[in-house]
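Lecture 7, part 2: worked example. A protein chain together with erythose-4-phosphate.
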Amino acid sequence: MKIFIDTANLDEIREAAAMGILDGVTTNPSLVSKEGHKDFRSMLEKICAMVDGDISAEVVSTNCDDMLKEGRELAKIHKNIVVKVPLIKEGLKAVKVFSEENIRTNVTLCFSASQAVLAAKAGAYIISPFVGRLDDISQNGMELIGQIVQIYGNYNYQTQVLVASVRHPIHFVESCLLGAEITTMPFKVIEQLAKHPLTDIGLEKFLSDWDKLQKN
Ligand code: E4P
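Predicted complex, written out as structure tokens:
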């Protein structure tokens, strides 16, 4: 299971990388806007210098030709850049051309198994189904992950399943059980993965017993 962080906050990326568990980074226009990175290129260069893994950078055009122009420029920034393309008809056309040019794509905003099949057929390197946003509208996001993993296995599609819009550790554990290749999550969820109350209680007890020994 590869762990990606879903953020454009450089401090969070640095901290997660220092934990030794980080395999890549996903960003999107909302996350970049939240951090106020007006210079998108320089932000991506900084992230690529911090993490040696796939770094997703999203196009903001909605027609194929403009997506291709944007994506080709993004791909030139660093060998680890993966061009993120929305799952719309024009996006699929762009994914086909990118894959012929050996530019890797992450097809984002996937909410159904049929969309995921089309992305794989078009040549996507990664598919990003959004589980949290489905849960938000009373559909089970993890069921979609199970369907996509099964379908990709049935046809031996090479596209990697990246579980996105992750809100809590159970999304992560279920993704591992289902065999998805990647999970991306906010820094807060990465911290939650490491936490256990019995670890904290146990450590407190070890340290207070140690202190008692020093005082005697
Ligand atoms: C994925 O790459 C997206 O950036 C992300 O996971 C969206 O998550 P959200 O639904 O919490 O905004």
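The two ends are 48 Å apart (CA to CA). The first strand starts at residue 2 and ends at 6. Keep this in mind for problem set question 3.
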